Amino acid sequence: MNQQALLDYLYAHIPLSQAMGVTVQSLAQGSVTLAAPLAPNINHRGTAFGGSISTLATLAAWSLLRVGTDTLDPLPRLVIRRNTVDYSQPVAGDFTATAHAPGVEVWNRFLDTLAQRGRARITLSASVRSGDVLAATFVGDFVALRLV
Questions:
Q1: 8 Å CB contact between 20 and 91
Q2: Global pTM value
Q3: Which of 35, 43, 73, 88 makes an SS bond possible with 25, Cβ 3.0 to 4.6 Å?
Q4: Cα–Cα nearest to 81, from 114, 122, 109, 116
Q5: Rounded CA gap, 102 and 118, in Å?
Q6: pLDDT in tens, 45-73
Q7: Under DSSP, is residue 63 helix (H, G, I), strand (E, B) or coil?
Q8: CA atoms 119, 11, 70, 107: torsion sign
Q9: What's the rounded mean pLDDT across residues 31-52?
Q10: Tens of pLDDT, residues 106-120
Q11: In this protein, which residues make up the domain named Thioesterase putative (predicted)?
């Protein structure tokens, strides 16, 4: 899956991503970075709405999982089970969320469990930045379900 294919998928299947103005900034081996402009995500204080920050981080982690399972047949259904966001700085401009893949051992255990049981859980994290400022950290538990 390339950047445009991921963006097309997000816009088609998660319409909120388009309303937020999300773009795929980078799609590399082991990481996904999504970006969003401040304007459609602004709150009453002139900074990014906390829900938008959380959503961008969730989308980045979910996208990492989607890209990482893209070769599986059938594609698993991916859902978020729970998450936490720690907001450390206000976001006064455009912002990004970068999700990094867990270690190879964790990833392989996730894929093996999915193959054997048809269901697997994995914890992913993402960092939200505005320029060089770390604004929030996200940790989310995701579930993959193999549908047959």
A1: no
A2: 0.94
A3: 35
A4: 122
A5: 20
A6: 999 999 999 999 999 999 999 999 999 99
A7: helix
A8: negative
A9: 96
A10: 999 999 999 999 999
A11: 4-145
For the chain, which residues make up each domain, given as ranges?
A: 3-145
Residue 147: pLDDT band (50, 70, 90) is confident
Amino acid, single-letter form, for residue 77: R
Q: Which two tokens stand for residue 105?
A: 């051992």
Mean pLDDT is lowest, of 28-32, 64-68, 136-140, for 28-32
What type of residue is 90? P
CA distances from 39 to 16, 33, 46 (A): 15, 19, 9
First to last CA, the chain: 22
Residue 62: name the closest of 83, 42, 39, 88 by CA: 83
Q: Tokens for 92? A: 């006064």
User: How many residues appear in the chain?
Assistant: 148
Contact 138, 125 (CB under 8 A): yes
Reference 85, options 74, 99, 70, 72; nearest CA is: 99
